[in-house]
């Protein structure tokens, strides 16, 4: 069965739902499941779309080759709906892009998960046999700036990213033992939360904090206020 993903940009002309005019629409199609996880407007006004596909994907006349299980893509459209660039991320087993954000210069920061290995611009990244975290920075034209990945003995995920000044903040959860770059850390329970700070210039980690109890604990989003205080949102089970 052919699946069709409709992406449209609407301009609000009034305060009611009936007062909208569609400016443009895009069809993203494949023969299996595909979808969009997140959309963001860049400082230059472009629309960035982060999505996934489970079969060869047709996008603006281009075919993105599917490799295995779930792959993901990042695409840039102008305000007029013109395709600027598209990047597929493909690999063994399950790979998913979960979140993205920008700095004031329009550089793009993306949080993802990959299994075993994944193809990114410039080469292949190898990880563990289970889900690892992948953080990447891209220039506004889609060129890869840097990547940083980490993982451990079980499933590790990134759910939120935020840029404040020259610091990238990322949050998620980890299971069992993981090395964030400072040595092994073991979870207190089934899943623990993590909060990490990295340099936006090169992706090198500044520090990491972990929190957890005896059941499942996750962080989903992070922001920083004007005074530099970091605010996170998530959930915890048990104590």
Mind explaining what this structure looks like?
The structure is a single chain. The protein is mainly β. It has one domain. Helices cover 0% and strands 65% of the residues. The chain is built from no helices and 20 strands. The strands form four sheets. Strands 3, 4, 7, 8, 9, 10, 11, 12, 15 and 16 form a ten-stranded antiparallel sheet that branches. A hairpin with a 5-residue loop joins β9 and β10. It is globular and about 50 Å long.
User: What class do helices, strands and sheet pairing give?
Assistant: mainly beta
Helix count, DSSP H or I runs of 4 or more residues? 0
According to DSSP, the number of beta strands is: 20
Count of distinct structural domains: 1
Uncertain stretches: 8-16
Helix and strand pattern: EEEEEEEEEEEEEEEEEEEE
Rough shape? Answer: globular
Largest sheet geometry: 10 strands, antiparallel
- Strand-residue proportion: over 45%
Please compute the radius of gyration using only Cα atoms. Answer: 18 Å
Average pLDDT value?
90
* Percent helix range: under 10%
Q: How far apart, in Å, are the first and last alpha carbons?
A: 46 Å
Main attributes of the structure:
239 residues; mainly beta; 4-stranded antiparallel sheet; globular
């Amino acid at each position: 069965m052919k699946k069709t993903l409709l992406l449209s940009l609407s301009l609000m002309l009034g305060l009611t739902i009936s007062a909208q005019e569609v400016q443009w629409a895009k069809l993203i199609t494949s023969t299996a499941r595909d979808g969009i996880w997140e959309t963001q407007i860049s400082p230059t006004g472009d629309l960035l779309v982060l999505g996934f596909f489970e079969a060869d994907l047709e996008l603006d006349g281009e075919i993105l080759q599917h490799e295995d299980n779930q792959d993901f893509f990042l695409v840039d459209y102008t305000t007029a709906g013109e395709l600027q660039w598209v990047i597929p991320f493909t690999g063994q087993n399950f790979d998913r892009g979960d979140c993205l954000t920008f700095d004031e210069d329009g550089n793009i920061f993306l949080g993802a998960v990959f299994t075993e290995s994944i193809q990114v611009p410039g080469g292949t990244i190898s990880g563990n046999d289970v889900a690892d975290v992948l953080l990447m920075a891209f220039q506004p034209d889609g060129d890869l700036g840097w990547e940083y990945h980490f993982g451990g003995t079980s499933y590790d995920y990134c759910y939120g990213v935020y840029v404040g000044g020259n610091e990238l903040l990322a949050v998620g959860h980890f299971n069992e033992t993981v090395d964030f770059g400072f040595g092994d850390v073991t979870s207190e329970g089934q899943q623990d939360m993590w909060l990490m700070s990295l340099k936006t210039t090169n992706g090198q980690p500044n520090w990491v904090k972990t929190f957890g109890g005896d059941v499942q604990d996750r962080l989903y989003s992070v922001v920083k206020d004007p005074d530099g205080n970091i605010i996170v949102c998530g959930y915890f089970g048990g104590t």
